[in-house]
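lol ok so funny story. i was supposed to be doing the assay writeup but got distracted and ended up predicting the structure for this chain instead. priorities right. anyway since i did it might as well share w the group, maybe its usefull for someone
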Amino acid sequence: MSNKEEALKQKINDKIETRKHLWTCIILLTGGLAGIVLNSFNIKTNAGYYINTIFLFIGLILDYFFFNSIVSTNKEIKNFINQLEKGE
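and the output, tada:
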């Protein structure tokens, strides 16, 4: 194996690890958002309700960005695999 192939395999492994960490972030963030939603039933004041709504909105935006990062990482992995198969 050449150094270029080894470098491509290392990049693929790094991207796979990145993807695993992004999925972990999404799972943890979604769990936190579910906690906010379930806790919002116990809130009696309007200020608390608005604060939870803001946190929920920010969390959904972060969830969206993490998901887009996973899609981007998948495309990069696919490109690296194609380069490895072509022998470039």
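DSSP finds two helices and no strands in the chain. Residues 3-80 form one domain.
back to the writeup now i swear
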